[in-house]
Design a protein that fits this description.
Blueprint (H helix, E strand, L loop, with lengths): L1 E8 L11 H15 L2 E9 L8 H12 L3 E6 L2 H4 L3 H13 L3 E4 L4 E3 L5 H34 L11 E5 L5 E6 L4 H12 L5 H11 L13 H8 L7 E4 L2 E4 L8 H10 L22 E2 L6 E5 L5 E5 L12 E2 H12 L6 H48 L5 H51 L3 H11 E7 L2 E6 L3 H7 L18
Parallel strand pairs: 1-2, 1-3, 3-4, 10-14
Antiparallel strand pairs: 4-5, 6-7, 8-9, 11-12, 12-13, 14-15
Helix pairs in contact: 5-11, 5-12, 5-14, 6-7, 6-9, 10-12, 11-12
Length: about 500
């Protein structure tokens, strides 16, 4: 059979280690020779496997789809092929529909359209663990944003009417009113607050005055942009992030009173949403209506029973149907009983996790090596700077300025090191969770409190829908394959031809 080789490294340091591109290609060629595969194309590249679309990976997919005689893809291991679910879904679709056979040489297994539950579990578990590691790093980025918000700092580019102030390194240190355009923003609010000027009239006035957008090719502001500006609380002193208002530290352009007058003209007021996060509903926010797509809401009766029903926002249902929470637990518990492994499967899982740990450790060590090298480089620069000061080659003022700059660089590097160390630690927490769930998912769920059950359901299940009084869902990877390996027939993916809905 004709085959394609895919070799990839994430960092330049990996090119100098055991996973270098030439080493990968050589091992894959030797494997192909043993299996009597004909190599027709080799793809090797340096590319990250995060959430961003990987152009080189998509070139591989496009090549295979355009050459129908190529039926085999050779990779060193799952981690080299994909670290995100989008790529895994693409490969899985080709496996099922286009008869593609994917060999993971170092991992010691392959998958094709006839793959067993155990084979699919091994693949999905590898993808899951790698994705979890990248998610931990992503979470740290989110936490850095949260820190900026606590410091009352705006996390993205300045609003129109403001400009950023940057230091010598290009880092933004402040946001100030734009001396050329801020007065236009004030005039827009003043015009609309009178109730006699429409957004179209404001647009025409601003175009005459010469107000332009913040884009690379400035254009007159469209009416939609003017509407957004007039509804934006940033201009009186609060920034809205994901629907929540936070105070910011920058100079307001207008007063709160002027902003409120404008909102009165719009006949709208900022209303705080009802907060029910503290209420003990296990399925809160996790289930959609199968018929209309609306959210399933929860309420508690006087006799302390929890009931769920569709909000019927689209007015599809003639009558509101209520479902007892205990009835929703039944199909969940039935599926959880199937998430268990035999001793042989547990042994294979431990081997798989050990391989995943090796791949993760290589990525971790390569990243830490780069960060430590960067830190040492700035430390050396600081030492050279002190020598230049002693030799009177630079002034004390220049010395202090550069020392502060290097200190900031090193602080940023230490922050990155801490992020990777935290992600490294939480990687093992994820492994421990998988092992725990593989052993006793049902008993853990039964003994949990309502909010713990909700976290449990959110971790394991996806695409949960309520059809009448029947709850349907799919298990997230790799737990779906784990249940499938044990003969569970009531999961949505890969169901048998005579399956029945989950009652």
């Amino acid at each position: 059979m004709k085959a394609v080789i895919l070799a990839r490294v994430s960092t330049k340091e990996q090119e100098e280690q055991g996973h270098s591109l030439p080493a990968q290609i050589r091992r894959l060629q030797e494997y192909a020779k043993k299996k009597d595969f004909e190599i027709v194309e080799t793809f090797s590249f340096h590319e990250s496997a995060g959430d961003k679309i990987r152009k080189k990976f998509e070139e591989v997919i496009a090549y295979i789809r355009s050459h129908k005689d190529v039926r085999v893809l050779l990779c060193e291991n799952v981690d080299r092929a994909t670290r995100n679910f989008k790529d895994a879904v693409d490969l899985d679709e080709m496996r099922r529909k286009e008869d593609l056979e994917i060999h993971f040489v170092q991992d010691g297994f392959f998958v094709n359209k006839n793959a067993t539950g155990n084979q699919m579990f091994m693949w999905e578990a590898k993808v899951f663990l790698a994705k979890q590691y990248l998610n931990r790093l992503s979470d740290d980025v989110k936490r850095s944003y949260e820190q900026k918000i606590q410091n009352k700092e705006w996390i993205t580019k300045p609003k129109i009417g403001y400009v950023g102030v940057h230091d010598e390194t290009g880092k933004r240190t402040n946001i100030i009113p734009d001396p050329l355009r801020s007065q236009f923003i004030v005039k827009m609010f003043e015009m609309y607050a009178t109730g006699t000027s429409s957004t179209k009239q404001i647009q025409e006035t601003m175009e005459k005055l010469g107000l332009r957008s913040n884009t690379k090719t400035p254009k007159p502001l469209p009416r939609g942009q003017i509407y957004i500006i007039l509804r934006d609380p940033f201009y009186y002193g609060e920034m809205k992030i994901k629907g929540v208002l936070y105070p910011h530290k920058y100079q307001p352009l207008i007063s709160r009173q002027l902003f409120n007058r404008v909102q009165e003209v719009f006949n709208g007021y900022n209303k705080k949403p009802f907060r029910y996060a503290c209420k003990p509903f296990a399925f809160r926010g996790l289930v959609k209506c199968a018929e209309c797509g609306c959210t399933i809401t929860a309420e508690r009766t006087k006799n302390k029973y929890n009931y769920y029903s569709c909000t019927n926002s689209h007015k599809i249902h003639a009558k509101r149907l209520y479902v007892n929470e205990n009835d929703l637990f039944k199909p969940v518990e039935r599926v959880l009983r199937n998430i268990s492994l035999t001793e042989g499967q547990k042994t294979r899982l431990m081997t798989l996790l050990a391989q995943s740990e090796d791949a993760k450790s290589e990525f971790f060590e390569a990243s830490m090596k780069v960060l430590r090298a960067d830190y040492d480089r700035y430390e050396k620069r600081k030492s050279n700077l002190l020598d230049r000061l002693a030799d009177e080659e630079i002034t004390k003022e220049d010395y202090n300025k550069k020392i502060n700059e290097y200190d900031e660089k090193q602080t940023a590097i230490n922050t990155e090191i801490a992020k990777h160390q935290k992600a490294d630690k939480e990687f093992y927490i994820t492994i421990a969770m998988i092992m725990s769930l593989a052993k006793r998912a049902y008993s853990l769920f039964k003994s949990s409190e309502p909010m713990e059950k909700r976290a449990f359901i959110n971790f394991l299940f996806q695409n949960s829908k309520l059809s009448g009084k029947n709850l349907t869902f799919t298990l997230k990877k790799p737990f779906g394959a784990m249940a499938l390996a044990n003969g569970c027939s009531n999961l949505c993916p890969r169901r048998d031809s005579n399956s029945k809905p989950i009652p």
